[in-house]
């Protein structure tokens, strides 16, 4: 199972598999039923490479007493200098089971239309597009988002509509998806494949309320994980306005989340308006520094060759992404990072964009040269 767990899943899952998952979900009553469901999902994800999960392995994933080292904790830096984000990564066998369970949840549950993150056919670009050309863009961030969602909250959601699961099955799913956090509470780990999908499940009621609030004030609303955005032509975002009071009441008093005041910002049309990192003043775009970083990497490679460019890249990039708990920094290759950044640029600006086409052409030439000399 460990070997399979580190392999990438198939890009597309057969409709027949999703239909079977829905059928099995409809008669999910026991732990044995859950095991069968997870294995069907894993077969859909990995095909012939899938390894069948046993009942003993499912129990080990669910009960921390059987697997005390279920998670590896490390920190990565945030954009703001000096701040770090804690990641709790599940060990390979647990992650493998969570991947199957995540596919099940994504198959049987349709997120609220305002949820843009971790939803098929939605992305940061989809969320940004709806806020294009607005006079005002108001962004807020939810503090300790994943750790605010407790196991009790998840269990309650799974045993109510539309899931209506048996208590024992809901309890096992909850145990597989949660862990004992820093303060001893059982919460969602930031790093588990299931956590983002579960946040959409938990936030459905909040998304419904905030969508209704936005419509009442002539605004547009979207949420990408813990990033919430409102936009519109009228300024209703004053500190003591009725809109802000209603917003805080819904998020903090009714839904139990906490707004991070340090990451609350109101951007006027004359400023650079961003939604989850995408500029939305007139058309979807990426920040100038993003393209500048890509150009610098490509220029270093073109002028000094791959090895020297890799060395410069490691000095300026890799140290920011070391994992202290592992003792060794992860390996980053400049060509992989450039390829990923180009894919994001293509997603935001489109494959016909001149900037993307030029940078991609330069990268393709460098890769051809690298292959020929290797």
Descriptive report:
The chain has helices at 2-5, 15-25, 31-46, 55-62, 92-108, 124-129, 145-148, 151-158, 167-177, 195-202, 204-216, 242-254, 288-304, 306-316, 334-349, 354-373, and strands spanning 71-77, 84-90, 136-141, 179-180, 186-187, 220-224, 227-232, 265-268, 274-275, 278-279. The chain contains 16 helices and ten strands. A four-stranded antiparallel beta sheet has the order 6-7-3-8, covered by helices on one side. The model is unreliable at 2-6 and 321-329 (pLDDT under 50). The chain is α+β, with helices and mostly antiparallel strands and 374 residues long. A hairpin with a 2-residue loop joins strand 9 and strand 10. 32% of the residues are buried.
User: Unreliable stretches, pLDDT < 50, 5 or more residues?
Assistant: 2-6, 321-329
Query: Beta fraction of the residues?
Result: 5-15%
Q: What structural class is derived from the secondary structure elements?
A: alpha+beta
The largest sheet has its strands arranged as 6-7-3-8
| Distance separating the two termini | 33 Å
Which sequence of SSEs, written as H and E, runs from N to C? Answer: HHHHEEHHEHHHEEHHEEHEEEHHHH
* Helix content bin: 40-55%
Compute the CA-based radius of gyration: 22 Å
User: What is the mean predicted local confidence, pLDDT?
Assistant: 89
Number of helices: 16
How would you sum up the major sheet?
4 strands, antiparallel
Shape: globular
- Strand count: 10
Features:
globular; alpha+beta; 16 helices; four-stranded antiparallel beta sheet; two-stranded antiparallel ribbon; disordered N terminus; 374 residues
């Amino acid at each position: 199972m460990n070997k399979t767990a580190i392999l990438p899943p198939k890009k597309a899952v057969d409709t027949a598999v999703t239909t079977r998952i829905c059928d099995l979900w409809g008669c999910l009553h026991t732990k044995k039923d859950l095991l069968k469901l997870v294995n069907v999902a894993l077969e859909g994800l990995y095909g012939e490479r899938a390894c069948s999960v046993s009942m003993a392995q499912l129990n080990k994933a669910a009960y921390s007493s059987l697997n005390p080292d279920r998670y590896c904790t490390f920190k990565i830096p945030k954009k703001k200098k000096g701040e770090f984000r804690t990641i709790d990564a599940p060990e390979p066998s647990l992650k493998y089971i969570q991947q199957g369970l995540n596919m099940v949840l994504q198959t049987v549950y349709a997120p609220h239309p305002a949820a843009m993150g971790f939803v098929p056919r939605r992305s940061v670009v989809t969320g940004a597009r709806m806020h294009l050309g607005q006079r005002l863009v108001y962004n807020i961030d939810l503090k300790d988002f994943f750790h605010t969602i407790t196991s009790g909250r998840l269990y309650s959601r799974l045993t109510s509509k539309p899931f209506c699961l048996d208590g024992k099955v809901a309890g096992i799913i909850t145990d597989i998806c949660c862990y004992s956090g820093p303060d001893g509470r059982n919460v969602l780990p930031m790093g588990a494949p299931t956590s983002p999908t579960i946040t959409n499940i938990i936030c459905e009621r909040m998304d419904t309320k905030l969508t209704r609030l936005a419509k009442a004030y002539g605004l547009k609303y979207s949420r990408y994980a813990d990033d919430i955005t409102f936009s519109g032509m009228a300024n209703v975002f004053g500190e003591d306005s009725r809109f802000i009071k209603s917003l805080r009441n819904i998020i903090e008093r009714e839904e139990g989340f906490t707004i991070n005041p340090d990451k609350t910002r109101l951007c006027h049309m004359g400023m650079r308006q961003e939604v989850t990192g995408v500029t939305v003043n007139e058309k979807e775009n990426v920040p100038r520094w993003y393209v500048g970083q890509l150009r610098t990497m490509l220029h270093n490679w073109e002028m000094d060759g791959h090895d020297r460019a890799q060395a410069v890249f490691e000095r300026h990039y890799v140290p920011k992404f070391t994992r202290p708990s592992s003792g060794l920094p992860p390996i980053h290759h400049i060509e992989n990072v450039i390829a990923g950044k180009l894919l994001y640029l293509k997603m935001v600006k489109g494959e016909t964009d001149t900037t993307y086409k030029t940078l991609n052409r330069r990268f393709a030439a460098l890769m051809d040269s690298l292959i020929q000399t290797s």
